[in-house]
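can u pls check wat happens w/ magnesium ion
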Amino acid sequence: MLQKNLSSLVSRLSSKPKGYFVTATGTDVGKTFITALLVKKWRDSGIDAGYYKAALSGAELRDGKWVAGDADYVKRIANLPDTQEQLVSYVYKEAVSPHLAARKEGNPVEIAKVQADFKAAYARHEFVFAEGSGGIICPIRYDDQKVFLVDIMKMLDLPLLIVTTAALGSINACVLTVEYARSRGLDVRGLIVNRYGCSGNLEMEDDNIRMMQDLTGLEILAKVKNGDTDLGVQPF
Ligand SMILES: Nc1ncnc2c1ncn2[C@@H]1O[C@H](COP(=O)(O)OP(=O)(O)OP(=O)(O)O)[C@@H](O)[C@H]1O
Ligand SMILES: [Mg+2]
């Protein structure tokens, strides 16, 4: 445990990130909600932060146009100037994993385009928050090429922020996500607890949070309640 704490501290002190990759213990845990607050906080503090997502499935049809809900939400909350095409590289209609959506709709994710679009996001902003799709092992493409979200994380080379809840089952989901990320050589910088207090059992949630901290050696960077409009932390 001491070794984990030390290595996490050393990596934090040794490099100042140019962005973060926001992932979560699963889908619908609150990546977009939290990322919007992060981008807004950075921008309100005078840092030109942007947003990028490689692949989104489950687009919404609005006025004849397929809208990528995640990007649209972050753009609105954080007041971003970017277009949808700049914010998301691949938009699929069906709300299934990108690998299945691409199999049905065509247009599979090309790693080179993700890299180029992400680089372009850096040309427009000084700091970029990238949001994952689903959880860390989400299949992005599974045909003659096999690409998982974790491969995109490796390629973009950003430290990770992991969004979790403190609800029943969160210790297992959170520790597995952190351990898998580390086994792939990724730099996990901290945890963000979303929907804190939602279970109605604060004694359990607080113990879950202590357990997640202790088992991973990671800091809880923020505890976000339902409906919060501010993260309650300064840019880190
Ligand atoms: N703290 C919160 N307060 C209020 N609503 C929240 C909060 N966290 C998440 N939500 C809502 O819960 C839903 C799921 O959250 P969100 O879209 O951020 O999840 P996600 O992890 O980005 O999902 P996906 O894997 O589809 O990208 C959304 O409607 C979002 O607005
Ligand atoms: Mg999302």
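The first strand starts at residue 19 and ends at 24.
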